[in-house]
Protein backbone atom coordinates (compact mmCIF):
# COMPACT_ATOMS: atom_id res chain seq x y z
CA UNK A 1 0.00 0.00 0.00
CA UNK A 2 1.19 3.44 -0.80
CA UNK A 3 -0.28 6.78 -0.09
CA UNK A 4 0.25 10.08 -1.83
CA UNK A 5 1.07 12.88 0.53
CA UNK A 6 0.53 16.49 -0.38
CA UNK A 7 2.92 18.73 1.48
CA UNK A 8 1.85 22.35 1.82
CA UNK A 9 5.48 23.53 1.63
CA UNK A 10 5.92 21.93 -1.81
CA UNK A 11 2.74 23.59 -3.09
CA UNK A 12 3.97 26.99 -1.82
CA UNK A 13 7.37 26.50 -3.48
CA UNK A 14 5.77 25.54 -6.82
CA UNK A 15 3.45 28.57 -6.67
CA UNK A 16 6.41 30.83 -5.90
CA UNK A 17 8.40 29.46 -8.86
CA UNK A 18 5.42 29.94 -11.20
CA UNK A 19 5.02 33.53 -10.00
CA UNK A 20 8.73 34.25 -10.63
CA UNK A 21 8.47 32.84 -14.16
CA UNK A 22 5.39 34.98 -14.89
CA UNK A 23 7.14 38.09 -13.58
CA UNK A 24 10.19 37.53 -15.81
CA UNK A 25 7.92 37.20 -18.85
CA UNK A 26 6.36 40.59 -18.09
CA UNK A 27 9.75 42.18 -17.31
CA UNK A 28 10.61 42.56 -21.00
CA UNK A 29 7.64 44.88 -21.52
CA UNK A 30 7.76 46.75 -18.23
CA UNK A 31 7.94 50.47 -19.01
CA UNK A 32 8.10 51.93 -15.53
CA UNK A 33 7.53 51.00 -11.93
CA UNK A 34 5.82 53.06 -9.24
CA UNK A 35 6.52 52.83 -5.52
CA UNK A 36 8.41 54.34 -2.63
CA UNK A 37 12.01 55.03 -3.64
CA UNK A 38 14.73 57.58 -3.02
CA UNK A 39 16.10 57.19 -6.55
CA UNK A 40 14.99 56.75 -10.15
CA UNK A 41 16.72 54.02 -12.14
CA UNK A 42 16.91 54.65 -15.90
CA UNK A 43 17.38 51.64 -18.20
CA UNK A 44 18.55 52.42 -21.75
CA UNK A 45 17.80 50.30 -24.83
CA UNK A 46 21.21 48.60 -24.65
CA UNK A 47 20.63 47.62 -21.01
CA UNK A 48 22.87 50.33 -19.53
CA UNK A 49 21.47 51.58 -16.22
CA UNK A 50 21.99 54.75 -14.23
CA UNK A 51 20.10 56.03 -11.22
CA UNK A 52 19.65 59.48 -9.76
CA UNK A 53 18.45 60.42 -6.27
CA UNK A 54 15.34 62.54 -5.88
CA UNK A 55 17.43 64.86 -3.70
CA UNK A 56 19.24 66.00 -6.89
CA UNK A 57 15.99 66.44 -8.86
CA UNK A 58 15.46 70.08 -9.87
CA UNK A 59 12.56 70.21 -12.32
CA UNK A 60 11.01 68.43 -15.27
CA UNK A 61 9.28 69.40 -18.49
CA UNK A 62 6.67 67.55 -20.60
CA UNK A 63 6.15 68.61 -24.19
CA UNK A 64 6.70 67.88 -27.86
CA UNK A 65 10.01 68.03 -29.71
CA UNK A 66 10.35 67.08 -33.38
CA UNK A 67 6.80 65.66 -33.31
CA UNK A 68 7.67 63.32 -30.41
CA UNK A 69 6.41 63.39 -26.82
CA UNK A 70 9.32 64.22 -24.53
CA UNK A 71 9.96 64.51 -20.80
CA UNK A 72 13.11 66.38 -19.82
CA UNK A 73 14.24 65.75 -16.27
CA UNK A 74 16.80 68.19 -14.87
CA UNK A 75 19.17 67.12 -12.11
CA UNK A 76 22.01 69.01 -10.48
CA UNK A 77 24.61 67.43 -12.78
CA UNK A 78 22.67 65.72 -15.59
CA UNK A 79 19.69 66.10 -17.90
CA UNK A 80 17.66 63.01 -18.77
CA UNK A 81 15.46 63.03 -21.87
CA UNK A 82 12.69 60.44 -22.10
CA UNK A 83 11.01 60.00 -25.50
CA UNK A 84 7.92 57.95 -26.22
CA UNK A 85 4.15 57.77 -26.41
CA UNK A 86 1.44 58.60 -23.84
CA UNK A 87 3.91 59.95 -21.27
CA UNK A 88 1.36 61.88 -19.17
CA UNK A 89 0.96 59.17 -16.51
CA UNK A 90 4.73 58.79 -16.30
CA UNK A 91 5.11 62.55 -15.79
CA UNK A 92 2.47 62.57 -13.03
CA UNK A 93 4.32 59.77 -11.23
CA UNK A 94 7.53 61.79 -11.52
CA UNK A 95 5.84 64.85 -9.98
CA UNK A 96 4.68 62.85 -6.98
CA UNK A 97 8.19 61.34 -6.66
CA UNK A 98 6.78 57.82 -6.76
CA UNK A 99 8.67 56.71 -9.87
CA UNK A 100 11.17 53.89 -9.20
CA UNK A 101 12.44 53.18 -12.70
CA UNK A 102 11.96 53.88 -16.40
CA UNK A 103 12.89 51.36 -19.08
CA UNK A 104 13.28 52.14 -22.78
CA UNK A 105 11.71 49.60 -25.14
CA UNK A 106 11.73 49.24 -28.90
CA UNK A 107 8.93 51.19 -30.56
CA UNK A 108 7.97 48.05 -32.50
CA UNK A 109 5.82 47.21 -29.46
CA UNK A 110 3.73 50.35 -29.98
CA UNK A 111 0.21 49.72 -31.17
CA UNK A 112 -1.10 52.91 -32.85
CA UNK A 113 -4.61 52.35 -31.46
CA UNK A 114 -3.24 51.66 -27.97
CA UNK A 115 -3.19 54.44 -25.37
CA UNK A 116 -0.52 52.82 -23.21
CA UNK A 117 2.72 54.44 -22.12
CA UNK A 118 5.76 53.43 -24.14
CA UNK A 119 9.27 54.80 -23.66
CA UNK A 120 11.25 54.47 -26.89
CA UNK A 121 14.45 56.22 -25.82
CA UNK A 122 16.22 57.47 -22.71
CA UNK A 123 19.12 59.89 -23.18
CA UNK A 124 21.36 60.84 -20.25
CA UNK A 125 23.66 63.84 -20.69
CA UNK A 126 26.11 65.31 -18.27
CA UNK A 127 25.47 69.07 -18.12
CA UNK A 128 29.15 69.87 -18.60
CA UNK A 129 28.88 68.41 -22.14
CA UNK A 130 26.64 71.28 -23.24
Commentary on this structure:
- The chain has about 130 residues and is α+β, with helices and mostly antiparallel strands.
- The protein has one domain.
- The protein contains two helices and eight strands, in the order H-E-E-E-E-E-E-H-E-E.
- The strands form two sheets. It has a four-stranded mixed sheet, with helices on one face.
- A hairpin with a 2-residue loop joins strand 4 (about 55-65) and strand 5 (about 70-75).
- It is elongated and about 75 Å long.
- Total number of strands: 8
* Low-confidence parts: 20-28
Proportion of helical residues: 10-25%
Question: What's the domain count?
Answer: 1
Shape: elongated
Topology record:
Layout: H1 8-27, E1 32-34, E2 39-43, E3 49-53, E4 57-65, E5 68-75, E6 78-85, H2 88-95, E7 99-103, E8 118-126
Parallel strand pairs: 2-7
Antiparallel strand pairs: 1-7, 2-3, 4-5, 5-6, 6-8
Characteristic terms for this protein:
130 residues, alpha+beta, four-stranded antiparallel sheet, 2 helices
Brief summary of the model shown:
The chain has 130 residues and is of the alpha+beta class. The chain has helices at 8-27, 88-95, and strands at residues 32-34, 39-43, 49-53, 57-65, 68-75, 78-85, 99-103, 118-126. The chain has one domain.
